[in-house]
Structures are given as structure tokens and as C-alpha cells.
Write a structure and sequence with these properties.
The structure holds two protein chains of two kinds. Chain A contains nine helices and 13 strands. By secondary structure, chain A is α/β, with parallel strands linked by helices. Chain A folds into two domains: 3-85, no CATH class; 100-290, no CATH class. A seven-stranded mixed β-sheet of chain A has the order 9-8-7-10-11-12-13, sandwiched between helices. A two-stranded antiparallel ribbon of chain A has the order 1-3. In chain A, helix 1 crosses helix 2 (62-79). Chain B has two domains: 8-153, Fructose-1,6-Bisphosphatase, Chain A, domain 1, CATH 3.30.540; 162-271, D-Maltodextrin-Binding Protein, domain 2. Helix content of chain B is 29%, strand content 23%. Chain B has seven helices and twelve strands. In chain B, the strands form two sheets. A seven-stranded mixed β-sheet of chain B has the order 1-2-3-4-5-6-7, with helices on both faces. A five-stranded mixed β-sheet of chain B has the order 9-8-10-12-11. Chain B is globular, with a radius of gyration of 18 Å. The termini of chain B are far apart. The chains are: A alpha/beta, B alpha+beta. At the A-B interface, helix 3 of A face strand 7 of B.
Chain lengths: 293, 276
């Protein structure tokens, strides 16, 4: 991934909407130029439904892709100095990066993580713990204004393992909210399935004592399918009366954005129903960028 | 397990040592667990100071570090060390602390690696081979214990009177009044003969003190440098029997020969139970 308007990372995320928009377009041209060269013959642009926000490329090796990204940013740097356009600090930036060190977190968060690991260890094959992603977290999402805003949306927050773990830990570290729960969605093509002893089917910790309180399911959203799945699963546990809303982090498609109750887009928390009617499904990703609420 | 710290050279060292840990763990499962009567290992007498176990573990750690950080000098207890002070980064390795325990099949021994920078040790890594857990710390970034599943931040216990302290000692040949008092009055007494492990256990709040009151003592810089970083980052410290700060030497010849007594404790208050 070269650049993502839904979560603008790095120095670009500190710039104004207009600069981000302009750089995104420039970057797109640079990528197309780069992919036209001989050196990149095995690489290509990822294009498809639900990828409005991203400039992304594919290639045969991770190193090659990293090198390509460096080249693209190098060419961009030769054209403009992003430092001159930075107006936000990281707390207000238009993206949230997964760059905070796990060892920098509050003791309560580290203990909560340890509790989760202890619980989850029962689902992993003996000898496979070393390679299971959940036990190898190193970097979490950094402190950002949206975490505190999210804290007020519902009493209980449900995150989806394992990609949601660094998000949950980042959220907890910013808010010190202890009402954090986890679930897991099982897919047949999940590479980690071979290391599993059995599936984690439920929600951890037990959500039932809190079933009369409000809930929100939080996850990154490509199509929104995982969030919907987790929401249905939670409702099956808590009952039909449960108040469950959803939050799509960095939605990549209009469908994912539109199907959630709330979204975090370009570093801003948005209540979807309040603005959905104003958005053009073809240009929603740029429109949202300029909504600086 | 994962690397924890952000300083690039420390993160690289951690990655290398995670590779070493896998090989050390394999060596434990295939060889060390069979001691003391495993045939064909070629253990020489540990009292001569160097065994095949030391050399094999030394090779594992050196190879892992050299692969990731080939530019960083390595001084090891098992090698002929440098005589001058290092000018850049330098690792100090004790491939097996408490070789006598390993040789005898007693499961209290560790592999220790410390990273020196300029005038102090900035990173400590102690691998408890038998339990497969890693203690590590970096300057101003805290001390941690991790297993394949858990990660825990380390913090020493609060000071307690001697009768409530869990104390690990190195036996003195002559039973002095102080040693008699420690034996008779401490809440719990332990003798593991592995100072690096005991210091990590103080960092973890398991023990309250480690005491070597022998003169001149058994603890060299190479034995305790890594564990000292861990203990200090967990809030503890190391002292002489007179109550002053125990000084560590830079990686080099003297760091493997500076035998001294040692009191390791959460604070000077805790250490004062054992100071002359």
C-alpha cells in the first residue's frame, strides 16, 4: 500500500486536506509512471471494487514492494517538501499509525493484554505459540483524538482478533477504558488455522453480565462483512434487545462506510447517517477528506 | 516472543537473540536435559572454567549476533577478550552463567548478553534456558519478562524487613555473624548459585535480595552486566558489601576477572540488611 486516503499516515497525514488530495493525485501519477518502467515489469497496480481510497501495488516480493514505495516517495519528495505543509500534530493528524511501542503502554493495558494471551493460549497448538500473531504484538496504534471520542459511543467495545488487537491496545492505552472485548471470525483461508487446536468461538471476556448496556463493534473495514458478522454473533449471545452499533475504521469502500453507524475516516470520527445523503458514491472518499469536523 | 525495544541496534540485537534462543532451546532439549550422565557430550570439569557446553552456547550466540550485527564487536567469557576499552557498541556475552549447575543437571543456569555503549551497559538479555523465558531491559525503557505466550513488565518488590525477605545467597566458606543472621532470620532462603537468574528474580519481585558476601566474591562484570540492566530498569540496584554502588567494567579482559562480592536488592534500604 502506497497511500490510503481513509488513513493518511506519516508526514502527509499532518497536512491540510487540499495538500493530501493533491499529493494523492500526484502519487497516483508517479506510481503509474514507475510501473511503466522496465524495473517494475513484475509489479502492477491493485485496482478493484472497494479500493477507492488506496493507491496500492502488487509484486513478487515484499522487499521489491518496499523498494518501490521508497522510490515513489523519493520522487514525491523531489517535487514537494511535505514538512512545509504540515499543520497537525500526530494527535490531530489525518491518520493513525501503528507505530507506538507495546512497551510504552500503561501497566493496566499490558496486564489486560497478558490476560487475553493467557486466555487465547488454549486455542493454539502446543509448540505454535511462538508464531501466533496474537502473542507477538510489538507495535500498536498511536494516541489520537478519535480514541477518546469513540469511548463515548457505547459502554462496551468489541474488537475482532487478530488484526484488531493492536487497534484495541491503542484504544485502551489512550482511554484506559477497561470495557474492551474480543471475538474472532473464522475463514477457511486463514493461514493461522493450521496452528489452531480449536476455534475461539465466543467473546472474551464474558459479555453476558453487560448485555443490558450499549455495545459497539469496531474493526477496519474493506467491505464491512467482518463487522456485520461480529455484530450478528454478539447479538446471538446477548439477545435481540441488545443495543449494538458498529464503527468502521478506515473504510475502503462506500459500501463499508455506508453500512456502519460510525466511521473513522482520515483521522476524524463521523456519524454515518448524518452525512450519508450528502455523499456521491463515486467521489465519497475525497468528499470525506474535506469534512474536517 | 518478539523484540520489544525501539532503539534500532537493540531491536536488531533482540531479533538476533530470538534466533539464538531457538538454538539454545534445541540444545537444552537435545543435550542439557540429559546431564549429568549423558554420554558423548565431552563435558570437561567445570572447575577448569570452560566446558563444551560453554563453547557450544557461545558459538550459538556469537553466530546469531554476527549474522544480524556483523559490525558490532563481541567480547565473551569464552574468548580471549580485548584489553582496551571499546570505542563503539560492544556485546559482552556469558554464554552459560552457572555452568556447574548445567553440568550437574541442576536447572538454574542462563545465557546472558549485555550491550555496552560508550560508558555504560544499555541493554541486558538473560535467557533462562530451562524455563524458556527471556528477561530483557533497555535503558529508560523498562524491564520485561516474556514467554512464548506472556509479556510482563518487571518491578521490584517494596522493601521489607529481613524476616519477610526471600533471600538468595552464595554460601560463604566461613560462617560469619552476618551470614548466620541471614540464614536464621530471613523469611525464605534460597541457594541457586546463578547470580544472573537471582538478580532477574529480584527484578520480577520473586526474590528480595541476592547476596554474595565472600571476599573477594564470585561475581564478575560478565556474570552480572546483563542482569544489572534488568534489575536497575525494574527499580533495583547492585551494591558492594560496604553499601556503595557496585561498578561494572567495560567489556574486556578485566570484565571477566573482576571477582567481587555483591548485594543486589530493590533499594539501599533492602540492601542495608546485609551491608557491613
Amino acid at each position: 500500500m502506497i497511500c490510503d486516503l481513509s488513513n493518511v499516515e506519516g508526514q502527509l497525514g499532518r497536512c491540510t486536506s487540499a495538500v493530501i488530495d493533491s499529493v494523492h493525485s500526484t502519487m497516483s501519477e508517479i506510481v503509474d509512471d514507475f510501473l511503466g518502467t522496465e524495473n517494475s515489469s513484475s509489479m502492477g497496480r491493485i485496482i478493484g471494487d472497494g479500493l477507492n481510497t488506496e493507491i496500492a501495488i502488487y509484486g513478487p516480493t515484499k522487499d521489491g514492494l518496499e523498494c518501490a514505495k521508497k522510490t515513489v516517495y523519493g520522487r514525491l519528495g523531489a517535487q514537494m517538501n511535505l514538512d512545509l505543509h504540515a499543520i497537525h500534530d500526530s494527535f490531530e493528524a489525518r491518520g493513525i499509525s501503528k507505530t507506538a511501542s507495546l512497551v510504552s503502554v500503561d501497566e493496566t493495558v499490558l496486564r489486560a493484554y497478558a490476560d487475553l494471551c493467557r486466555f487465547y493460549s488454549q486455542f493454539v497448538q502446543f509448540g505454535a505459540h511462538d508464531d501466533a500473531q496474537i502473542f507477538r504484538q510489538r507495535q500498536i496504534y498511536s494516541n489520537h483524538r478519535v480514541w477518546k471520542e469513540i469511548a463515548g459511543l457505547a459502554t462496551n467495545k468489541l474488537f475482532i482478533l487478530s488484526a484488531g488487537l493492536p487497534i484495541a491496545l491503542g484504544y485502551m492505552n489512550s482511554t484506559l477504558d477497561e470495557r474492551v472485548f474480543y471475538t474472532e471470525i473464522h475463514r477457511q483461508n486463514d493461514a493461522g488455522v493450521l496452528d489452531k487446536l480449536r476455534d475461539f468461538e465466543g467473546v472474551y471476556p464474558d459479555p453476558v453480565p453487560f448485555k443490558k448496556e450499549s455495545w459497539i463493534v469496531i474493526d477496519k473495514a474493506y467491505t464491512g462483512g467482518s463487522i456485520d458478522h461480529a455484530k450478528r454473533h454478539l447479538r446471538s449471545i446477548l439477545g435481540k434487545e441488545a443495543q449494538i452499533s458498529s464503527l468502521a475504521l478506515f473504510p475502503k469502500s462506500f459500501k463499508a462506510f455506508a453500512s456502519a453507524d460510525y466511521a473513522v475516516y482520515a483521522g476524524r470520527l463521523i456519524e454515518v447517517k448524518k452525512i450519508i445523503s450528502e455523499l456521491d458514491p463515486e467521489n465519497w472518499h475525497r468528499q470525506l477528506l474535506y469534512m474536517e469536523a | 516472543m518478539r523484540s520489544l525495544f525501539e532503539v534500532p541496534i537493540i531491536a536488531a540485537a533482540e531479533e538476533a537473540l530470538l534466533l539464538a534462543r531457538r538454538d539454545l532451546r534445541t540444545f537444552w532439549a537435545s543435550t542439557l536435559v540429559g546431564l549429568p550422565d549423558l554420554g558423548g557430550v565431552g563435558l570437561s570439569d567445570w572447575r577448569v572454567g570452560q566446558t563444551d557446553v560453554d563453547l557450544h552456547c557461545d558459538e550459538i550466540i556469537r553466530n546469531a549476533l554476527a549474522k544480524v550485527l556483523p559490525e558490532v564487536e563481541i567480547v565473551s567469557e569464552e574468548s580471549i577478550p580485548r584489553t582496551s576499552r571499546p570505542t563503539g557498541f560492544c556485546f559482552l556475552i556469558d554464554p552459560v552463567d552457572a555452568t556447574h549447575n548445567a553440568s550437574a543437571g541442576y536447572p538454574a543456569f542462563t545465557s546472558c548478553v549485555a550491550l555496552y555503549d560508550g560508558d555504560r551497559y544499555i541493554f541486558g538479555w538473560v535467557y533462562d534456558i530451562g524455563r524458556d523465558v527471556i528477561y530483557s531491559a533497555a535503558s529508560k525503557q523498562g524491564a520485561y519478562l516474556q514467554s512464548s505466550i506472556m509479556l510482563k513488565r518487571l518491578r521490584v518488590k517494596a522493601d521489607a524487613p529481613l524476616e519477610r525477605m526471600a533471600v538468595s545467597v552464595l554460601r560463604t566458606r566461613v560462617l560469619t555473624g552476618r551470614m548466620t543472621r541471614i540464614i536464621s532470620e530471613s523469611g525464605k532462603l534460597r541457594i541457586s548459585s546463578c547470580s544472573s537468574l537471582d538478580m532477574c528474580l529480584i527484578a520480577a519481585g520473586t526474590l528480595d535480595a541476592f547476596v554474595d558476601l565472600n571476599e573477594p566474591g564470585h561475581e564478575r562484570t560478565c556474570d552480572i552486566a546483563a542482569a544489572s540492566v534488568i534489575l536497575q530498569e525494574a527499580g533495583g540496584n547492585i551494591f558492594t558489601t560496604m553499601g556503595s554502588q557496585r561498578q561494572l567494567l567495560p567489556p574486556g579482559l578485566e570484565a571477566v576477572h573482576d571477582y567481587q562480592s555483591l548485594i543486589a536488592a530493590p533499594s539501599l534500604v533492602g540492601a542495608s540488611n546485609f551491608i557491613l
